[in-house]
Amino acid sequence: MSQRLEKLESDFAADGRPLLMGALVAGDPHVEATLKYMSILAEQGVDIIELIVPFSDPTYHGPVIQRACARAIHEDVGWSDICELAARFRERFETPIVASSYFNRFLAMGLENCARQMSAAGVDAVMIADLPWDESQGVEQSFAAHGIAIIRSVAPTTSTERFQSMAEGARGFIVWTGHSGGEVTISTESFKAAMAGFHQHTQLPIIASMKVSTGEEAAEVGEFADGVLVGSALVWLIEGRGADLSERIRRFVDDLRRHLRP
After folding, report:
1. Fewer beta carbons within 10 angstroms: which end of the chain, N or C?
2. Is residue 145 part of a domain?
């Protein structure tokens, strides 16, 4: 595991400060813009950046991310672009980067080759949307050999017993995905109960992905989870473009951070 993820773990263990994770689709609307938006997120205090590698059929994502993937694919964004983005970002920032996509996207490049190049570029971890945890051990070993963690994800249907097994050997943090392209109710009793049960079996931060689009929603989720993943709302801002887009992203992230960590 990278030193950056180790620091994230140790800092969280020391102060328990809620984490803010922001997601961008690499290459939407183009690579240079993505680098600029990554830099804004880091400057505004985002703790982790998820860089979504565009995929032709992103069924695990909602319509906003799907449209962004289509735009990025039109720009012919590939792994070389992802590695270049990470390497250029690393010239200024130490914010952990998680590259996420679907298994075929990683497989097409070759797992060893992919892990080696991403590690050299400064990527810290990967998330593979369609790879079940109980089928990931061999893949996990390939990435771990190059210091890259595979971030484990759980769903509302994950039992406490299964979570306990998944949490063993997990690295960095765990993502609780409260939606699958559809709507989600924030801070439901089941969400609160799930967080309470899961926290009994891991010291790692559990970051909730729940279609948060306002600072107030981030604060509400942060009462029970250890952090919030904001993706669709950020990508929706980028989709709208406009001359003041960079400033709107700054204001949005600042609002999230202030509510999450008052």
Report:
1. C
2. yes
Nearest 10 degrees: CA dihedral of 130, 135, 136, 139? Answer: -100
- Determine the structural domain holding residue 52 and report its residue range: 3-257
Report if residue 64 sits inside a domain: yes
In three state form, how does the secondary structure of 77-139 look? CCHHHHHHHHHHHHCCCCCCEEEEECHHHHHHHCHHHHHHHHHHHCCCEEEECCCCHHHCHHH
Tens-digit pLDDT profile for the chain (262 aa)? 899 999 999 999 999 999 999 999 999 999 999 999 999 999 999 999 999 999 999 988 999 999 999 999 999 998 999 999 999 999 999 999 999 999 999 999 999 999 999 999 999 999 999 998 888 889 999 999 999 999 999 988 888 889 999 999 899 999 998 764 444 444 578 888 889 999 999 999 999 998 899 999 999 999 999 999 999 999 999 999 888 999 999 999 999 999 999 8
Please indicate, yes or no, if residue 262 is contained in any of the structural domains: no
CATH of residue 88: 3.20.20.70
Question: Is the full-model pTM beyond 0.85?
Answer: yes
- What total number of domains does the chain contain? 1
